């Protein structure tokens, strides 16, 4: 039966219920992942009535996941199938929760990076980055790297030509849990599950509604004054590329779906020559309930000198006991957070069997405030490189359709020589800068052919580009306020709008944009 938003709130399911015909929200958000959830929280704070449409359910369902099944036309890309999740919470139901801002240089026009330059500066995003930190559950974390190192009794590490920095990790990674109170109880927020958006209802330059369909074929239309698509980096382009929408303003721009970017990853092993000093620099830090991960990046001056993309690296630790360590840590977290009912008998048995390992982990965490690294651990260098925005790296449509009737994605991911050259340059600088504590096991990267390096690269599940932000309608798909060029009330908030990709995990910047958009809509 129809449910009126004026009488019923919280989380509803389109399979079981139907919105009342006359209901109309201030803002309709399509997608209940990280961006959609934070946007809803902020819009409710601004007094706006919000309806959120989530295509999946409260948990991952294989039938919903099948709508993401795609064709690969270019390089192999694991993240298109392994890095997207259609459920409330989106990819936050599976991610690690790593938070990092883009660098100032990422927003700048760099003469040596074709297509670089955002229409907004990092300075403009600064207050929204700060608000995003609070909404990510990191309000009490140390935001200055020097403070964290000082708490450890160590000086911040310094290397020639490499900058050291720390990333922060969300204590609660699933945003549907982090903001459960707002999603379930706020009088201005209604969430509909299994409401798969299949098409916008457009009159001229105005979006009037969104047509939704369940996998069982049930349809409903949701109406609002404004609409924001928070569907993720790939799905955003796929939705707006559908052939039934060829007359829409956004399809007049040939850039729709182009400039697809991910982070290019290349891994090598390290021979650590001074283990104690190395772990002082690169061991993960745990301080006052928060996790911090040390990383290194190529300095701004060397990026300019070598004409590289932005690039950084993290250290990987792999050991035979690694899986057991992870399982023990998961169980310990449940116990420490009072979630005893979630702990199984098998998990308790594992804790007992591996009590010595648990003791070492606990001492390292509680006393040394560092992650425990077993003596047999292999240590690797994982380089994470920005991609240059290329028009031939693109999201297109397949001829096959999913169970909702939408054309599936056909991804043509390309890695250019610019990325390969940047990885080479970084590996060489790292080899020189880390001398004294580690050396690259395989220093032959400089002689390796481009194609052999490309063949050993991987993606990072960081989907960006396709609906580029631009000041002019001829140069992109959305404007500085994330509004679709040529439309009055339709917006896109996802990594799809990024003109360039940095090396940084994209979620924090997406969320800063979401906070900024909420302020923009809240003022209108």
TL;DR?
Helices cover 29% and strands 23% of the residues. The chain has 524 residues and is an alpha/beta fold. The protein folds into two domains: 1-137 and 172-263 and 389-414 and 458-524, FAD/NAD(P)-binding domain; 324-372, no CATH class.
Strand content range = 15-25%
User: Distance between the terminal alpha carbons, to the nearest Å?
Assistant: 34 Å
Net shape:
globular
The CATH architecture of the largest domain: 3-Layer(bba) Sandwich
Q: Report the uncertain regions.
A: 1-8
Helix tally equals: 16
Number of strands: 21
Report the radius of gyration as a whole number of Å. 23 Å
| Structural class by helix and strand composition | alpha/beta
> What do we call the CATH homologous superfamily of the largest domain?
FAD/NAD(P)-binding domain
Q: How many structural domains?
A: 2
The CATH topology of the largest domain turns out to be FAD/NAD(P)-binding domain
The average pLDDT value, as a whole number, equals 93
Helix content: 25-40%
By CATH reckoning, the class of the largest domain would read: Alpha Beta
Largest sheet: 8 strands, mixed
Mind explaining what this structure looks like?
The structure is a single chain. The chain has helices spanning 34-45, 62-65, 79-82, 122-135, 145-151, 175-178, 180-185, 233-241, 275-282, 300-306, 322-336, 345-353, 355-368, 417-433, 450-455, 507-522, and strands spanning 2-3, 10-13, 18-19, 25-30, 50-53, 71-72, 98-99, 162-169, 189-193, 196-203, 206-213, 219-229, 264-272, 285-287, 290-298, 311-318, 378-385, 394-401, 407-412, 438-440, 490-492. The strands form four sheets. Strands 2, 4, 5, 9, 10, 11, 12 and 21 form an eight-stranded mixed beta sheet that branches. Strands 7, 8, 13, 14, 15, 16, 17 and 20 form an eight-stranded antiparallel beta sheet that branches. The protein has a three-stranded mixed beta sheet with strand order 6-19-18, with helices on one face. By secondary structure, it is of the alpha/beta class. Helix 1 (34-45) runs parallel beside helix 16 (507-522) and helix 11 (322-336) crosses helix 12 (345-353). A hairpin with a 5-residue loop joins strand 11 (206-213) and strand 12. The protein is built from 16 helices and 21 strands.
């Amino acid at each position: 039966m129809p449910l009126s938003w004026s009488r019923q709130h919280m989380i509803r399911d389109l399979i079981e219920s139907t919105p009342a015909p006359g209901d109309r929200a201030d803002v309709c958000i399509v997608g209940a992942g990280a961006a959609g959830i934070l946007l809803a929280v902020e819009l409710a704070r601004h007094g706006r009535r919000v309806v959120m449409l989530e295509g999946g359910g409260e948990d991952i369902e294989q039938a919903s996941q099948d709508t993401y099944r795609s064709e690969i036309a270019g390089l192999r890309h694991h993240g298109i199938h392994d890095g997207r999740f259609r459920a409330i919470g989106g990819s936050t139901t599976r991610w690690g929760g790593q938070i990092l801002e883009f660098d100032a240089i990422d927003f700048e026009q760099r003469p040596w990076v074709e297509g670089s330059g955002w229409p907004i500066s990092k300075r403009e995003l600064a207050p929204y980055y700060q608000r995003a930190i609070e909404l990510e559950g990191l309000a009490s974390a140390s935001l200055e790297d020097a403070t964290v190192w000082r708490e450890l009794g160590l000086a911040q590490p310094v290397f020639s030509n490499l900058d050291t920095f720390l990333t922060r990790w969300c204590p609660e990674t699933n945003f549907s849990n982090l903001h459960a109170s707002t999603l379930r109880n706020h009088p201005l927020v209604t969430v509909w599950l299994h409401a798969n958006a299949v098409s916008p209802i457009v009159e001229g330059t105005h979006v009037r509604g969104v047509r939704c369909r369940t996998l069982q074929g049930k349809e409903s239309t949701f109406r609002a004054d404004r609409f924001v698509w928070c569907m993720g980096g790939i799905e955003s382009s796929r939705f707006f590329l559908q052939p039934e929408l060829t007359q829409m303003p956004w399809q007049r721009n040939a850039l729709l779906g182009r400039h697809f970017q991910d982070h290019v990853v290349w891994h090598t092993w390290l021979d650590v020559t001074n283990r104690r000093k190395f772990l002082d620099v690169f061991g993960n830090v745990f301080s006052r309930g928060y996790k911090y991960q040390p990383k290194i990046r190529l300095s701004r001056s060397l990026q300019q000198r070598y004409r590289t993309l932005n690039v950084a690296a993290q250290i990987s630790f792999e050991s035979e006991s690694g899986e057991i360590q992870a399982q023990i840590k998961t169980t310990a977290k449940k116990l420490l957070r009072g979630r005893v009912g979630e702990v199984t008998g098998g998990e308790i048995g594992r804790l007992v069997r591996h009590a010595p390992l648990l003791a070492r982990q606990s001492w390292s965490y509680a006393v040394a405030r560092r992650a425990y690294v077993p003596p047999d651990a292999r240590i690797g260098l994982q380089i994470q490189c920005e991609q240059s925005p290329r028009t031939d790296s693109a999201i297109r449509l397949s001829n096959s359709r999913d169970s909702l009737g939408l054309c599936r994605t056909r991804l043509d991911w390309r890695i250019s020589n610019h990325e390969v050259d940047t990885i080479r340059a970084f590996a060489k600088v790292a080899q020189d800068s880390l001398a004294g504590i580690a050396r690259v096991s395989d220093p032959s990267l400089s002689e390796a052919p481009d194609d052999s390096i490309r063949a050993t690269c991987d993606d990072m599940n960081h989907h960006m580009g396709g609906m580029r932000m631009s000041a002019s309608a001829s140069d992109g798909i959305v404007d500085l306020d994330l509004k679709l060029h040529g439309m009055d009330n339709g917006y896109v908030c996802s990594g799809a709008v990024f003109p360039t990709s940095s090396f940084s995990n994209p979620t924090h910047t997406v969320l800063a944009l979401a906070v900024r958009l909420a302020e923009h809509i809240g003022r209108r």
